[in-house]
User: Fold these one by one.
Assistant:
Number 1:
Amino acid sequence: MSGNLKIDPTRLPHHIAIIMDGNGRWAKKRGLPRVFGHKKGVQVVKEIVTECRKIGIKVLTLYAFSTENWNRPKKEVNVLMELLYNYLEDELNTMLSNNIRLNAIGDIARLPDWVRKKLEDTIKRTASNKEMVLNLALSYGGRDEIIRAVKKIIKDFESKKISINDINQELFSNYLDTKGLPDPDLIIRTSGERRLSNFLLYQAAYSELYITSVLWPDFDKKELINALYDYAKRERRFGLTSDQLVEKK
Ligand code: IPE
Ligand code: IPE
Ligand code: MG
């Protein structure tokens, strides 16, 4: 547990998901090319992963690249791929020494081979780590994930592995990329935009949302802790009344 955090551990989110937005605007404000924002953004990723691990967060999902981001200028996409490759290379030892398991969600097949191989290699090498899952959303879109899940379900139906009556929420979850991971308790979005931008559409059904105007390259431990204090104060009712929640305790 981080020294100065005074939150009842039972009030901490198990799974935090972050929409890391605002790199381009951060750079623009400084008269720099967008790439500089992405570079600073990677440093912040390293800091926040370390901090979440220290606090005892069990799953951290980072939205690093969306299906729509493929439509950005080719040069920017290339830089982002290079940064991802370098990040994986730089952080393998940190993941190993901190017992962090890397996972990825998204249409990974679309990544260039050299990045995909690095990613798969890092996932393999950290596979037995138990303390935290670092889940990178790469080439990820919630709609794309749902469509891919539907296709897999139909295949299994056609090959008689499942029947129509087997299809329920639990089964459906197991066909999503997030199979085996709990839904996010808290979704943080930086840079002030109030939208999900195709992030975890199915899984976010009851997630708490926290939006900060801070740009991702300026996000830090203090901002993370602010979000955690805010989350700890909330009452998650899941459709019930407040009184019902008290009765349950
Ligand atoms: C987030 O920052 C990083 C990615 C989407 C890859 P942006 O690049 O979207 O930065 P803004 O929103 O243009 O400021
Ligand atoms: C969301 O940010 C995707 C990531 C953070 C990877 P965008 O910058 O792509 O989202 P929009 O376009 O503002 O909705
Ligand atoms: Mg953006």
Note: Helices lie at 23-29, 34-55, 74-97, 113-125, 142-158, 169-175, 221-232, 242-248.
Number 2:
Amino acid sequence: MHAWPASDVPALPGKGRDLKIHDTATGGPVSLDPGPVARIYVCGITPYDATHMGHAATYNAFDLVQRVWLDTKRQVHYVQNVTDVDDPLLERAIRDGHDWTELAERETALFREDMTALRMLPPQHYIGAVESIPGIVPLVERLRDKGAAYELEGDVYFSVEADPHFGEVSGLDADAMRLLSAERGGDPDRPGKKNPLDPMLWMAAREGEPSWDGASLGRGRPGWHIECVAIALDHLGMGFDVQGGGSDLAFPHHEMGASHAQALTGEHPFAKAYVHAGMVGLDGEKMSKSRGNLVFVSKVRRDGVDPAAIRLALHSHHYRSDWEWTDQVLADAVERLARWRAAVSRPDGPSADALVEEIREALANDLDTPSALRAVDRWAALQQSDGGTQEGAPGVVSRAVDALLGVAL
Ligand code: 5CA
Ligand code: ZN
């Protein structure tokens, strides 16, 4: 699958700082020390509806991770998937009388447009679940041959007991896991499973649903977690730097994915850090496609809002907090963008050297965007009060805001 076009990332004077970021598995900040090529996997969309501000906020966080790495002169190897076959997608297509492949293609195309407009860096490998099936089947067969998977009425399940590290990503107890499993695509109450938490690796073909050749597994389609594992192992290998997604993916998705990969390879860990963005809500509820309480990026863009303002609105809350999208959040961002643009429109201004370091420091400290925005606000206020005459300083600010925050002034 093709991704979307990259926007330029200007190089900045001096050197960036190494990222410290909150890791769900250890429950605290970790200093990442990637090699010259940092490796990141971010879970992509299930394309049955348009990109909403919650999705955008999550992708924003992982875009910033990459911008911090690029600023340290590392290269970034970024992989993202598209869950282009899964229950919610098939259900929506049936509900609306659409062909599921057309629905997936249309929403994926819209996602690319939204990401481009928001200046999100594209992955080098943007891979669909369907195109990964030939790589998924042998992984499931290997798990079964190792005794880490078993068959139940034609379906194949992963045995969570096969991974001694199972539970370490989310740190949840069995009761909490069981509840979340039922809520998030699992089937803990299905009779005959070895452990209620065991997730499906391969679902035998169902009447009226798409299915693919699964070699010794029989016709069927892949489970959700193995999809991301197959893609990540294929393009990044074990021990990559960051596995990312919203906090609703910590369990079961990232927990199960880590266990699949660890059981397959006998190596640990799957990812060095599991990083999760908070949930964006609307009117007191998590914004979600299934609830339908959505503010779409594409709709707000069509209403004439500059994507740079949307981006500033996303930056205005810390990525790990749960927060509410409101008209006021957007109005504040529109106002801030205008203020910043006015401040960089003059040829000279207050020195930008300290500001670049402040933005760098804020982002390196667990992506503290609210502090980064306040630092730029202070510089803009000084500019407005005629606080400096350094030639070219506004240009340095523009480039720093572009390179580090993805906002074109
Ligand atoms: N295709 C799977 C991942 S493999 C999936 O979860 N797709 S999704 O379309 O439901 O979500 C895409 C990303 O957006 C995930 O990282 C998810 O955690 C995140 N996300 C979904 N809703 C919200 C929300 N309200 N706030 C923040 N992030 C969200
Ligand atoms: Zn995923």
Note: Residues 20-286 form a domain with the Rossmann fold fold (CATH 3.40.50.620).
